[in-house]
Amino acid sequence: MDDHARSDARPPAPPTGAGDAHAAAAAGVAVGRVSALEREIEALRQSNGQLLNLLDATAIATVFLDRDLRVVRYTPAACALFRFIPGDLGRPLSDLATPLRYAGLMDDAAHVLRHLGAVEREVEAGASTWYLARVLPHRTGEGEVAGVVLTFVDISELRLAQRALRESEARFGAIVNHASVGVLQADESGRIFFVNRHYARMLGYDEGELVGTLMMDLIHPGDRAPSMERTERLLRDRQPFQIEKRCLRKDGSVLWMHNSVGLLDAAGDERPSLVVVSTDIGERRRAEDALRASEERLRLIVENAVEYAIFSTDLQARITGWNTGAERLLGYSEPEVVGRFADLVFTDEDRAAGAPRLELQAALREGHAMDDRWHVRKDGSRFWASGALMPMRGPDGLVGFVKILRDQSQQRAAQQALEAANRSKDRFLAVLSHELRNPLASIHAAGTALAEPDLPAPERGRVIDIVRRQTQTMKVLLDDLLDVSSLRLGRMNLRKRWVPVRVLVEAAVEATRHGVDEAAHALAVAVPEPELQVFVDPVRMSQVLSNLLTNAVKYTPDGGRIALDVSQQGAEIVFGVSDNGIGMEAGVVESMFEMFAQRPSELRPGAGGLGIGLALVRSIVELHGGRVSGDSRGPGKGSRFIVAVPIGGLPGEVRPDPQLAATPADDAAHAARPLRVLLVDDNADAVWPIARLLGLRGFDTQVALSGSEALTQVVHAPPDVLVLDIGMPSPDGYEVARAVKAMPDAQAVRLIAATGWGQPDDVERTRRAGFDAHLVKPLDLDELVAALRRLCPDP
């Protein structure tokens, strides 16, 4: 052995100096770690041995399988289930016979290996033998999945006990369900968990339908408080009680029941339950109620119930008694009426028709006579009252009648107001039907004429004008209805800004120009200089003026004079619209501002409108903080309507210079490249004309009849603007918009929503969805072109 080998074999020399001391310390630490590791291994070996001994000693059948589902280990208790022999170690479990009726065992084991979850099932192993089988992933000490472990716990006795319990409950249920009384069982909170068949039928329910409901919900609201108080005392003092109360049937009718209520103690730690045994006492209560009602009628006379006019008569209907309520309601004192015939409270018309005699006959025949009619006071005034006339019997038979009256004038007025509202609604629906039918008839006739190939070109142009004019009429009607709905729901939001008064007037005049020209009216407009400005919503204020002008056109004979004048009066701008038309009575003017109010007019067909124009005018003006009023000197003398709104604005705000208003660019400026527009709508009849007209205006227009078709076209050739119908079948407009926004090559595409929904909430929703503009159907070509130019000024 050479020197190097020998030095390696010898123990290290003692350290000398500081370096040797450090080496010795390091060696000592290493030796300590080795010793600790050996101790941990020994402890793990002992723990593993203890675990294996525990598994062998347990009564739970346990089988360990590797990842190939081969048997790795099993406990002695598992031998009875799989008939293991030592040679079965390493064999697939599927090769071994077992009495378990568990056809899906291997599938469950494979599922656990794949998903690392747990599977639990109850499986049978021969007659009356059941096991709770659990399949779990088996992991090593390092956390790796080594296979699965199967455990089988014998639950045969539990199953037998459960079956015996079910049979006992079935016997109990059969006995209780055949009982002739109702039985209910509920927990301490009053939640029902059992009712027998008779109880359910008494209340009109099917068996089991009441389970889970609250017992107190079955009790009439007037009887719940005493029932709750007695039940709380029962739970506190454990003293049963009996109570008669009203219960509610399923159909809402009332059933009187006698209830015996007690506590049923439960086994173990379970809480006691409430038991209620009920019988139907409806017939007895009805008899008692009838007796009390008779006594109550007499009591009312004795006690002089001042809210009721109560008086008695003899068999000839002469008054014999008169309470203070009758004196208060009818105005007669008792001495004034005793001995007089009771028909003095009837109107002359009812007396002439024999109503008092017929009422007496009905009371004798039916036992009572009910009437709701007009009655007459001593001073001749009339009031509406509900009355009841009943025979009054003594020991020797019929002795007379008793009459009870109650003033129902206020209720009658409320009913009449409701009927008036219904008539107003019916009138509105009739007018709406008429107003929509007229333009529809014109459009239908025009469409038929356009289909005629020999129609001359000049007449074809006239037909086109009819279609456009009648379509605009329908659009105005629908817009007014939507505005009224917005106002009633509080959803009309004003978008105020500084606007030249001249712009408002010009917009209103332009909107009514066709009607003015058609009726050959002379329209005088006076806007003072210098240019006035007002802080308003320009769309809504123009709508106010156009509605007033439209009314003037409707109710002024052809060739009449209409004037629109503007002035500043203090801090207000005042608009006046005058005409020399049919006018109205002075007392009728204010009613014209009510919803659906109309002035009768035979000037021209369709002049009536929906009767909401002036109501809409007042609402919009009041939203601006202004006021509106009307005036007429009488029929045939014309009318004048005044609108005054605050000039408005914020303190210190600078008004814009009206001279700097921008003018719209001419279409020729956009002729460098046609703007590419893709119209998407599942209504081909609606989208084709718009596409054709846009093409004539110089746009490069394509059409898609579904959201899927639109997305395909956008992928191949993104347009400049995408006009989307919101309400298409899936994918709808919102879905298409989201998909386009997600396309890298379509980020520059502008989106316009085209929809029949135009409320502020609808506009806000499309804005949040990423749309750049919101247009309401039917699309107006000029509005669409303006939106396209605004979104893409330089294609």
Mind explaining what this structure looks like?
- This protein is an alpha+beta fold.
- The strands form six sheets. It has a five-stranded antiparallel beta sheet with strand order 2-1-5-4-3, sandwiched between helices. A five-stranded antiparallel beta sheet has the order 7-6-10-9-8, with helices on both faces. A five-stranded antiparallel beta sheet has the order 12-11-15-14-13, with helices on both faces.
- A hairpin with a 2-residue loop joins strand 14 and strand 15 (397-407).
- Helix 13 (409-450) packs antiparallel against helix 14 (457-489) and helix 16 packs antiparallel against helix 17 (613-623).
- The radius of gyration is 47 Å and the shape is flat.
